[in-house]
Amino acid sequence: MTVIAIDGPSGVGKSSVSREVARRNGFGYLDTGAMYRAMAWLCLQRGVSDPGDVVEQIRGVDFEISTDPEHVSVEVDGIDVTTDIRSEDVSTNVQIVSSVPDAREELIGMQRDIISRVSADKGGIVVEGRDITTVVAPDADVRILMTAREDVRIARRAGEIHGEATEESVEATRAQVADRDRKDSATTSFLTAAEGVHTLDTTHIDFDESVEAVMGLIDQADGGNK
Ligand SMILES: Nc1ncnc2c1ncn2[C@@H]1O[C@H](COP(=O)(O)OP(=O)(O)OP(=O)(O)O)[C@@H](O)[C@H]1O
Ligand SMILES: Nc1ccn([C@@H]2O[C@H](COP(=O)(O)O)[C@@H](O)[C@H]2O)c(=O)n1
């Protein structure tokens, strides 16, 4: 069973690269950010923002996340929220959940259960987020911190949202990316690699090269285990 842990800031390419790496290896894929987003969606729907109440919402919810890299989906209380959790409202308010230590403990427990079950079932899993290499799966077989210069990440995200990275779209995206990283830095450490974690700087490499670099690190770890 192989566990690949990938962390990094907003827009660096964690989700897209992790999904492709999972696909190529026949592994499962877990987007932990989608879990925080789903719980934030739930709290926003119910008008809950008090930290104590946030934890209660999470404990009582019926939650499903697909770990199939070919088909990513998220359900909360039987409602498909796959698209809604990507809204600007959720993106700017996700910290109502991710900044609450008890809420994190709940989600980390769920993430560890999924990692054990799916890696046993599929032979491996690629898990991505902000605290996977350090807190959720510090014993993962391969641990990677993906980085890229902030202006490059903003241009990538702007291209994704607006179709192309024009001056206007870049400005509109800048605050979102930088703001989220600043807020997230208060609870998780994803800008510098912890001991034993590989840093993969993607500033000057494209998507395919990033995937190849992760595949190379997996091969390297496999070689070391033989
Ligand atoms: N190395 C790369 N070079 C160029 N573009 C890339 C690279 N890696 C990913 N991308 C593109 O950048 C965009 C953002 O990637 P992605 O959504 O995977 O980032 P993320 O780190 O998961 O962000 P977030 O944490 O905000 O969800 C996507 O359009 C993706 O195709
Ligand atoms: N391990 C993680 C993953 C995510 N978060 C929080 O969720 C937000 C959304 O994550 P995306 O990867 O979908 O951008 C993120 O901004 C964090 O607040 C987290 O705390 N830990």
UniProtKB/TrEMBL annotation:
ATP binds at residues 8-16. The keyword ATP-binding applies. It catalyses: dCMP + ATP = dCDP + ADP; CMP + ATP = CDP + ADP. Its main location: cytoplasm. It is an enzyme of class 2 (transferase). Keywords: ATP-binding, Cytoplasm, Kinase, Nucleotide-binding, Transferase. Residues 4-219 form the Cytidylate kinase domain. It is found in: Cytoplasm. Its EC number is 2.7.4.25. Coiled coil: none annotated. Belongs to the cytidylate kinase family. Type 1 subfamily. NCBIfam families: cmk. This is Cytidylate kinase. It comes from Brevibacterium paucivorans. The gene is cmk.
